[in-house]
Amino acid sequence: MYREQMASIRRELQQIGVPQAKILSINATHVAMLDNINQIIQLAKNETSDCGDEWHDADEHSSLSLDSAEEATERRTPPFNKEEVEVIPPPQQVVEVQMEPKRTLLFGDYDNILIPKTHEYYDLVDQLAKEQLRLVLISTFCILFEGSILCRYALAGVEDNVWTLFAEDGAMKMYTREETAEGGLPVDPLKAVHQVQGVTALEYMHYFYDDKYKMDWDHTLNGMNVVERISRDTMVLHQKHKTVWPAAPRESLFVSHIRRVDDLKTEGAYDLYIVCNKDVSRTDVPVTSSSGVRVGLTVSMICETVVKNGKALGELSRDDVQCNIIYVSQDVKKSVAIVVVVQNDHNKEQYQQAQDTIECYAVHHKYPFHYVNVESNATLSSTCLQKDFMFQRHCVVAELMSSWPEEWLLFLDADMAVINPNHLIEEYIPSDPDIHIVFYKRIFNHEVMAGSYLIRNSGLSRKFLIHWSLYEFSLPKSFHGSDNGAIHGLQLIIIL
């Protein structure tokens, strides 16, 4: 059903002029979100089906559920040497142990934060969990249970036109809203809410968080591995995603953290958990493909267990248990601007058509566009004294880039035009923090092209541009190719 709704939504977005690349991205994200949530639900039900009516929460489980769940776990656990296996007490001893306050849970518990405070990611995950709870609890439970006590957390919601219903399929509802982060970067969070019968929050979150099950439910993945297992509640994962045409191959590198947060549960709810994922940068995990894109994404899953019919815990069956699910993804885009530098407005008609495509593309995708006329700026003319404008323009960018707020700049020749507006600049921005400048090769002779490049707005980039612009004064008296010849000589100097 939701696939039909997404087709209808795609048509509506096309009619209002949303770029095709963004439409494809929205469609892929939403369909993947819906599919994955449904896959986790099915996985949780399948893995716990052997338990019959017994259910597992954070505080109770029976010997029957222990036996069946251990069987499910064994199906995924590699065999150990018999000599290394710890002796398990008889069943009657296990039952007696369960009556003690200190319990051994099927999936473990996440009552305490286990990541060491000394770890470099501790502050990141702690702040992330708090921020995501604030984001998700903005009107979320008012959507699920109108009039419930959690409406006190509703800072703004559907009634205030902050979250907008995007699509629905039965109990599943999807919302979106426009939002900007600090610095004005668009983040456009997406939210899905769902209700699942017969599954507890701990069960659902266990299968969502545990890396052993990732490839079972996330059908958008081609591969996954654990980069660092920091603690039982925190790890760093590297994932390779299936390519969705026409987007570039995507990867994700993120820290994943799970914790119990009962302080914010709904009145009458049994427990509340959050799993939050946040992209990170690491020099030991480079992008595996030269054309690949590292996804910058913040994802959180919040689940609470609701006990229905007012029964005591010892009398509950799966028919009496419900899990309320809230999923939010937040895509933080890199800040990018387009830069064109011209010497003057003479003969502008010779490249006006190309400039029109650039301006249209910038407006369409909301990229800032810095158009610089050097002769109209006395300061630039007196600062950048190069006689060859091909060198002078790089000096101009070096002088101005510190005043521009964007993280990345796409420098273009004035006669460059946009051929395919469905591609975004972000597809070509490297995720490696040590890369500051991206050049490309000419098709016909594979030389480095000087007329267009992506450059990080950094001190290192500025120094490079200054050295490049000053190369005019080191040119040979023979044929040299202006700045396009100079870039090859400059590369050799840097390398050697």
From TrEMBL:
<dbReference type="Pfam" id="PF01852">
    <property type="entry name" value="START"/>
</dbReference>
<dbReference type="GO" id="GO:0008289">
    <property type="term" value="F:lipid binding"/>
</dbReference>
<dbReference type="InterPro" id="IPR002913">
    <property type="entry name" value="START_lipid-bd_dom"/>
</dbReference>
<dbReference type="InterPro" id="IPR023393">
    <property type="entry name" value="START-like_dom_sf"/>
</dbReference>
<protein>
    <submittedName>
        <fullName>START domain protein</fullName>
    </submittedName>
</protein>
<feature type="domain" description="START">
    <location>
        <begin position="155"/>
        <end position="330"/>
    </location>
</feature>
<feature type="compositionally biased region" description="Basic and acidic residues">
    <location>
        <begin position="72"/>
        <end position="81"/>
    </location>
</feature>
<feature type="region of interest" description="Disordered">
    <location>
        <begin position="51"/>
        <end position="81"/>
    </location>
</feature>
<dbReference type="Pfam" id="PF03314">
    <property type="entry name" value="DUF273"/>
</dbReference>
<dbReference type="InterPro" id="IPR004988">
    <property type="entry name" value="DUF273"/>
</dbReference>
<feature type="compositionally biased region" description="Basic and acidic residues">
    <location>
        <begin position="53"/>
        <end position="62"/>
    </location>
</feature>
